[in-house]
Amino acid sequence: MKRNGGRETPDGVRYPHIALDVLGQCHSSACVELGNTRVICAVHHPQQLVDEYRGSRGRVACTVRRSASAGSHSAGSAQPSVVTPEKDMSLALEGVAEEVVILEKIPQLLVEVVVEILAEDGGVWDAVATSMSAALVSGGFEMHDLFSACGSALLSDGAVVLDPDAAEESNAQASALVCVMLNSGEICYARHQGSCEPGTVLELVSSAMKGCLSRKSAITTQLINHPIL
Amino acid sequence: MSLPPATGAVELSSFKQHVIRLLTQSKRLDGRPFDSIRVPHILHENRQDTKINRVLASTLYTDDTGTCVNCIVTGVFGPPPPQHPEEGRLTVEVTAPFFPGYSAFQIEGTLHELARFVRSTIISCLDLTELCVISGEACWVLRVELILMNADGGLRAATLHAAVAALHNLTLPKARLPSGDVVESRCLCFHRIPVAATIGLCGTAGSMQFLLDTNAAEESVADVLLTVVIDETDGIVSFLHHGRFPLLLPHLTDAIDMVASHGAALRSAILKSSSPPQ
Q: Where is the Exoribonuclease phosphorolytic domain (chain B) (predicted)?
């Protein structure tokens, strides 16, 4: 089967290209391209949590914004609603960041992370998680592990494909997404959409985990080879 | 009307004092002379999935220092405006997602003003009747989205240059209306190409200092800010002035002459097409 991004097999993944420190006015930033999907993540300079929170742990706040021209399914010029998929993604990413970043090392500090989705062709979660991990690492925040995400989809012909693009995502019967720490293999976030048998859900999740871990060498190599880190 | 400078861990008031001290010594933060501009670089992006995403053009505007603007143009068919049935529609939206969240309300008015400025300047240089498909029934609706990645002063000039680079020689593709009529492809052209620059004035010790192409730090300390937009014949397309005191006519003509002397360099930099290597 012929797939997008030069892939021939159902378990082929698109490998991310990571560029660090692309924005000058932020504390740290990362731009990740995954096929035709492009995402920029920026970490602002940490602020002091003075009035709203006191304790021994810091906080990571995340905002995900989608460019109006990014997706193909942005219908016309509808009014921006309050509940968006980006809001769900930002809340999930905050939970992932709480697990990955050692918050006791930054007490009473607020770290604000902004993600902008510039172009989308499937694999948005993969690109967003990879860019957030790269931006936090290049910002000098102590973390337990790097993290990344990968999706898998069950197509209408019964095939399970890894890292689906936009066309495969829209035609899928069911899809799963897993956000995994790359070295320890622990799952930070998992999501399933659609309907299928329980055995297929397990197959989708395990396929997504394999795809996520298969990108580990590509991600760590690009982060290690950066002159700053 | 400019975004606050990125001072990092330095307080804004201390940063301003530092900039004022440099200006009294006839220096600028980035070491430029007072009458030099930052030459822009335009990167056109050729996307392979243009038909799917309705993205007609995508350009990345950068200069030698911090400003970086991403301009994305999308087009759909829609009804023409009722008051002008012979014209197409053009909307401009400016967003700055990478500014800190605590200044969101502060910069929202600035972004709206930027969008209005870019739209009015483009409309005065572009014939909107070229976007008309069927008079009174169908027209192209172009949406210009400008994303400020980095903002380092001169935002009106930067956003205008990014939008002009994306819209000039834009090919409206061959498409089919819902009624079944086929619309041939068309090339969009400006009948005059605007270039802009921001000039700051500092009144120190009774003498007036002109700062051409101000950055964000200089805009925060300048007494007067001028934005001059000119075309190929050095005609004035737009002129914006706001500050703490009014200006005399020789100051205005000096400001226009400063921008006109760099107009050819700016225009060639904007229209020069550079694509990423295939």
A: 71-173, 193-244
Determine contact, residues B73/B167, Cβ cutoff 8 Å. Answer: yes
Residues of A in CB contact (< 8 Å) with B are 22-26, 29, 36, 40, 42, 44-45, 47, 61, 63, 65, 67-72, 76-77, 112, 114, 116, 118-119, 121, 166
Look at domain A15-71+84-223 and name its CATH class: alpha beta
What is the residue extent of each domain of chain A?
15-71+84-223
What pLDDT does residue B103 have?
64
Answer whether B101 touches A (CB < 8 Å): yes
Domain count, chain B: 1
Contact A212, A150 (CB under 8 A): yes
Give the per-residue pLDDT at B275.
46
Q: State the CATH number of the domain containing residue B181.
A: 3.30.230.70
Residue B2 domain-assigned (yes or no): no
Cα(A208)–Cα(A215) distance, integer angstroms: 11
Maximum CA pair distance of chain B?
70
For the ranges A71-85, A89-103, B168-182, the lowest mean pLDDT is seen at A71-85
All residues of chain A having their beta carbon less than 8 Å from the beta carbon of residue B91 are 77
Q: Do B49 and A36 touch (CB under 8 A)?
A: yes
* Residue B250 C-alpha, separation from nearest chain A C-alpha, in angstroms: 37
- Which tens digits make up the pLDDT trace of A14-41? 889 899 888 876 889 999 988 888 888 9
